[in-house]
UniProtKB/TrEMBL annotation, chain A:
This is Glutamate synthase (NADPH/NADH) small chain. Residues 22-128 form the Dihydroprymidine dehydrogenase domain. Residues 143-419 form the FAD/NAD(P)-binding domain. GO terms for molecular function: iron-sulfur cluster binding; oxidoreductase activity. It comes from Gemmobacter megaterium. It comes from the Bacteria. Pfam families: Fer4_20, Pyr_redox_2. SUPFAM superfamilies: alpha-helical ferredoxin (SSF46548), Nucleotide-binding domain (SSF51971). InterPro entries: DPD_II, FAD/NAD-bd_sf, FAD/NAD-binding_dom, Helical_ferredxn.
From TrEMBL, chain B:
The keyword Transmembrane helix does not apply. This is dihydrouracil dehydrogenase (NAD(+)). Involved in pyrimidine base degradation. Catalyzes physiologically the reduction of uracil to 5,6-dihydrouracil (DHU) by using NADH as a specific cosubstrate. It also catalyzes the reverse reaction and the reduction of thymine to 5,6-dihydrothymine (DHT). Residues 413-432 are annotated as: Disordered. Heterotetramer of 2 PreA and 2 PreT subunits.
């Protein structure tokens, strides 16, 4: 294969295989023991610590860091997992710069927070090869269906299993993990970590995962109701928003989430990418699509967002990372149309003020266009109340959590918290009836 | 999770971590917060005799010594015993003990050195249902000027006498808290035992001046331009405390006397070390005053994980290192180790070189490219390089096997032999 960054159209192998492999190495390599000790030593063990408040799963961060300091990383991991059973993945993908680390008092004091995310990764990495630290309570004889093996579903399932319930997870895709497996940039979860974490989580026992079981296609809510004592829906956001502009259906125009999912399952060196890539959107999905396109060897990658930098939902840290790998970010521009005959050739934009288009326009060359303007709820069974595009509240034996449910931000860590809390609610409900 | 339940003199607590008699245990409010946080027991702040309450200064009571990053290493205080009315303390103690039956509650006492005063206070506390008493013979500031605290603890005859009174007028377990402000800890410990003490606790604080205000030329803490010595505690005093605990644990006449270990306990590891050297439980103050009561959670998880890893029960740990605490003359003079520098871990700061070259044995070679290597022909294995290296485990000491020639001495490593029969020892007894 003799493709290069300058090869026109959408082509694989724009960079040598070893360069691509290197580009997709761990973005934030793990601490060794010395680094962990030095980093952990900086924690002040604050009272009623702001980092705990900032964590959607309320991990006792000062305690786990102190446990690292005193040479007991397994106890540290236990402190993390007690609150967040997917603490390993969250250590890799959490936007810590807008959560715990932003709240760290040393961020205020010195502009350098304690590196909580990396310390969490250290503790969980040390402890994961050890025997699974949780055991199941006496069997309750109750059976709970969890729909979706993403962060919310897995978190819910583990907590339910721990309480002695039997759990069956119904997953639409071929593999469990949800967005951890299909939706996170590859360099954030290297070495098949998403599957390794699922395998570790299942060691508790009492959880069965059935893949390729899509709600509404292979299974129905009524069917599940008949066979289970309670149902948890963690179905995520299966739909994507569309641009609603001419040319959207041209070849080369794709949903970013779909592209990221394919990329995660692909052999990277042979994965095709455009020469000129345009990503429309300002969230994490947009950044992940843009950065990975660049790492695969696209010559020009431009992220275009309709509002200003301060409104972008991707954090400053993520924007900087994108800029660092060579992604150009254009703020305050809205797409008018995708230009091309049978495939995309360019995108025309209008400059905008606060998301509203102005008269002046510009055009960006594009043989590949990724739409990353948000996902939406899809495939919700009848009879559930949907408010503001999310499943609202629990109803008669059905709970929901994660991105599909109302409340909280659409973050992995939020999904874990909601799954865990739903499990507690389900447990209370089931045990109250007996 | 290892079983951390503790039984000290028949006083039961869910774990061996008690708060020492000190400011954190002066009131019901604090003590209940401590119990809520998970502390196994408390020794209530020292009660004095009936009468007008003690008066404290209203300027600074504490001075401190810090390490890098302003980590508090040592704390010094000039606070006296409780300054609240006796009846208030007694009422609260009773209430707390009723509410928290599974936790240990011991009352610290300090009254004038006469029989009537002790008889009286023991009678007054009888009704509280507290688990025991601790005699404060340790406080080195303020109260000592009035003939109490360390003024008693420095005179073994007084220790024995008062302990005897306490055992005569009370059926409660009696812990005698010892002062480190003496030349040897053994006579006070022996005196406590002779007086009938059920246990000793140590160490109380060490007489100290933490620093001097160089504008006002006064020791700190400074009260209106003057300073007085205080009592020093915290991580800085741990080595002194460990030695004193171990001396009591191994000495023939005091061996077996239960010990409550006190002095700079901050982490599970500190606690385990005190216990290995003979302490049946530990008491903590400075760590709680620095970080809050929550730190006990790390002590609990850490000790539990350690015992699980070792497959040991807590009773296996207590006193386990005592037989290995020997006199210098018992050390193996034929044990040879050499420093080893891991080139993978070395960050090339050169501190080991500076320390060895300037102040020790010129046994570290600095090679081109800032490569630091040990010269075995000069290395006496002093361990200074290990101690000054900023990277843990970068420099380690490696034992030379028996029979191998030590390049420093040119002699093969021989089997165990100590100073007592060393040829250079004028007092050595001839082998033949």
């Amino acid at each position: 294969m003799s493709n290069s960054q300058l090869t026109p159209g959408i082509a694989p192998g724009r960079l040598p295989a070893d360069v691509i492999a290197r580009n997709f190495e761990d973005v934030d390599p793990p601490f060794d023991m010395h680094e962990a000790q030095v980093a952990a030593d900086r924690c002040y063990f604050c009272h009623d610590a702001p980092c705990i408040t900032a964590c959607p799963t309320s991990i006792d961060i000062p305690l786990f860091i102190r446990q690292i300091v005193t040479g007991t990383p397994e106890a540290a991991a236990r402190t993390i997992w007690d609150q967040n059973i997917l603490g390993g993945m969250c250590a890799r993908v959490c936007p810590t710069e807008t959560l715990c680390e932003e709240a760290c008092v040393r961020e205020a004091a010195e502009g350098k927070p304690v590196e909580i995310g990396r310390l969490q990764r250290y503790a969980t990495s040390v402890a994961m090869p050890k025997p699974h630290p949780y055991t199941r309570a006496a069997p309750t004889g109750k059976r709970v269906a969890v729909v979706g093996a993403g962060p919310a579903g897995l978190s819910c399932a583990h907590r339910l299993a721990m309480k002695g319930h039997d759990v069956v997870i119904y997953e639409a895709r071929p593999k469990p993990g949800g967005l951890n497996e299909y939706g996170i940039a590859a360099y954030k979860a290297t070495q098949d970590f998403a599957q390794a974490e699922v395998d570790w989580l299942l060691q508790i026992g009492g959880i069965e995962i059935l893949c390729n079981q899509r709600l509404g296609r292979d299974i129905t809510l009524d069917g599940l109701k008949a066979q289970h004592d309670a149902i948890f829906l963690g179905i995520g956001l299966a739909g994507v928003n569309s641009l609603g502009i001419p040319g959207e259906r041209l070849d080369g125009v794709r949903d970013a989430v779909e592209y990221i999912a394919e990329l995660r399952q692909a052999a990277l060196p042979s994965f095709a990418v455009g020469r000129d890539v345009v990503v429309i959107g300002g969230g994490m999905t947009a950044v992940d699509a843009a950065v990975q396109s660049k790492l695969l060897g696209a010559e020009n990658v431009t992220m275009v967002y309709r509002r200003g930098k301060d409104r972008m939902s991707a954090s400053g840290y993520e924007q900087d990372h994108a800029a660092q790998v060579g992604v150009k970010i254009v703020y305050n521009a809205v797409p008018l149309k995708v230009i091309g005959t049978d495939k995309a050739e360019a995108v025309e934009f209008a400059y905008a003020v606060d998301g509203k288009p102005e008269a002046e326009t510009f055009t960006l060359k594009a043989d590949q266009v990724f739409k990353a303007i948000g996902q939406m709820l899809a495939g919700v069974p009848d009879g559930l109340s949907v408010e503001g595009g999310k499943i609202a509240g629990a109803s008669s034996g059905i709970w929901a959590g994660g991105d599909c449910a109302a409340g909280g931000e659409d973050l992995t860590v939020t999904a874990v918290a909601e799954g865990r809390d739903a499990a507690e609610a389900i447990h209370a409900h089931l045990m109250a009836r007996t | 999770m290892a079983d951390l339940r503790s039984d000290f003199l028949g006083i039961k607590s869910p774990n061996p971590f008690w708060l020492a008699s000190a400011p954190p245990t002066d009131k019901q409010y604090n003590v209940e917060r401590a119990y809520e946080a998970g502390w196994g027991g408390v020794v209530w702040k020292t009660l004095g005799a009936e009468g007008p309450p003690i008066v404290n200064v209203s300027g600074p009571r504490y001075g401190a010594v810090w390490g890098a990053d302003r980590r508090l290493l040592g704390l010094n205080n000039i606070e006296l015993i409780t300054d609240r009315p006796l009846e208030v303390n007694l009422r609260e103690i009773k209430e707390v003990k009723r509410k928290w039956k599974d936790r240990a509650l011991v009352i610290s006492l300090m009254v004038p050195c006469d029989e009537e005063s002790w008889k009286d206070i023991l009678k007054r506390i009888e009704d509280t249902e507290a688990d025991g008493v601790e005699l404060n013979f340790g406080c080195p500031h303020g109260m000592a000027e009035r003939g109490m605290g360390s003024a008693v603890g420095q005179v073994p005859e007084y220790i024995e006498m008062v302990t005897r009174w306490v055992k005569q007028y009370s059926r409660m377990p009696c812990i005698v808290k010892l002062t480190p402000n003496i030349t040897s800890i053994l006579p006070p410990a022996i005196a406590a035992k002779r007086g009938g003490a059920d246990a000793v606790s140590l160490i109380n604080t060490i007489k100290s001046v933490t620093n001097v205000d160089l504008d006002h030329f006064s020791p700190f803490p400074m009260i209106d331009g003057k300073g007085s010595h205080g009592g020093y505690c915290g991580p800085a005093v741990k080595p002194i405390a460990l030695n004193m605990v171990a001396e009591i644990a191994r000495y023939q006449e005091t061996r077996g006397l239960p010990i409550s270990g006190i002095g700079g306990v901050t982490t599970w590891r500190d606690a385990a070390e005190f216990m290995a050297l003979g302490a049946g439980n530990v008491q903590v103050c400075t760590a709680a005053m620095t970080y809050g009561f929550k730190i006990v959670q790390e002590m609990i998880s850490g000790l539990s994980e350690y015992l699980d890893d070792k497959g040991m029960a807590m009773s296996d740990l207590i006193g386990r290192a005592v037989p290995n605490f020997v006199e210098w003359q018992d050390l193996n003079l034929n044990y040879v180790t050499k420093a080893r520098i891991s080139q993978d871990d070395c960050i090339k700061c050169g501190r080991c070189y500076a320390a060895c070259e300037d102040t020790s044995h010129q046994a570290i070679l600095m090679k081109p490219g800032r490569v630091f290597e040990v010269n075995d022909a000069e290395c006496v294995a002093c361990n200074l390089c290990v101690n000054v290296c900023p990277v843990e485990n970068c420099i380690t000491m490696e034992q030379m096997p028996l029979g191998e020639v030590d390049p420093r001495t040119g002699r093969p490593v021989a089997p165990y032999a100590n100073w007592q029969d060393h040829p250079n020892n004028p007092a050595a007894t001839a082998a033949e």
